[in-house]
Amino acid sequence: MSTETLMRVSNLKKYFPIRKGVLRRVAGHVxxxxxxxxxxxxxxxxxxxxxxxxxxxxxxxxxxRLIEPTAGSVKYRTAGQEEEITHFNKTQMKAFRQRxxxxxxxxxxxxxxxxxxxxxxxxxxxxxxxxSQKERTEQVKELLQTVGLSVTHLNRFPHQxxxxxxxxxxxxxxxxxxxxxIICDEAVSALDVSVQAQILNLLQDLQxxxxxxxxxxxxxxxxxxxxxxxxxxxxxxxxxxxxxxQQLYDNPSHPYTEALLGAIPIGxxxxxxxxxxxxxxxxxxxxxxxPGCTFHTRCPYAADIxxxxxxxxxxxxxxxxxxxxxxxxxxxxLKSFYDFSQVDRSGA
Length: 348
What we know:
This protein has helices spanning about 55-60, 90-95, 115-125, 135-145, 165-175, 195-210, 220-225, 245-250, 255-260, 305-310, and strands at about 5-20, 25-40, 45-50, 70-80, 80-85, 100-105, 180-185, 215-220, 230-235, 240-245, 315, 320-325. The chain is an alpha/beta fold.
């Protein structure tokens, strides 16, 4: 894995307007993503984790402009230089789409039920005018074999496949343009556990074969543990912790991360006799987030400063790779409940 930055996201915001009344005037905003900054390095898998509604998927879609960000900077390295993609016009964005693709959560709704596998996987090639029809068909056959499907599936339709097979079709479509970066938005959450393992192993094999970089969005920490190199933890539209995989699971530095680790089902990966941190209350509304630290309404360690001042995402123990947004990072002794050394990573 390279240390060179492929994508640099700075102060990203995505606010959705709340309209009320007959005239549909803007009465407020849902702050789905609120001042988020992170980097994706060449060849790595950056995991992004958090509860439903924390802004993970909105972040993933905003950085490639499937939805337009409200503010912020997204720079992508092209030919050794960083380019600001939020300023791209339609022609530039079309060229950018060849380098960055997405695999969606629902493997059925993300495929057009009226299009055959041949048409679905070859559509990106047709849109970008790559090759003749015969050449595109040959490339589709090659892609199907690459993701573990057969050329006999060419003329079948999505309803004729299982969930895992449909997701393989989605992955083949994402690979068609030979991208550098693939954003996987909850790519395995709709699949059975056994099928999840197959898809995760496939993604890792493809990463090795094609030199891919992944941003992997999920809410399952065991999935994130298996596939990620670095992990971003989000809560209510903000990043609360960034760390390498081992740093996060061995030494969580934010109470929310501790709670997520404590929620992993009891099994061979769970260790320790201590009491798990169970969060009370509900996630505040992103339309009216609490002042100070957004997590203070549910945090058992919260003090007055947490209710008044928003913590800054800063390095933990002088480690640039490990950052947390908590006023008491150096004072709290948080528990992992997760035996990183005993986890078998030879299979999912």
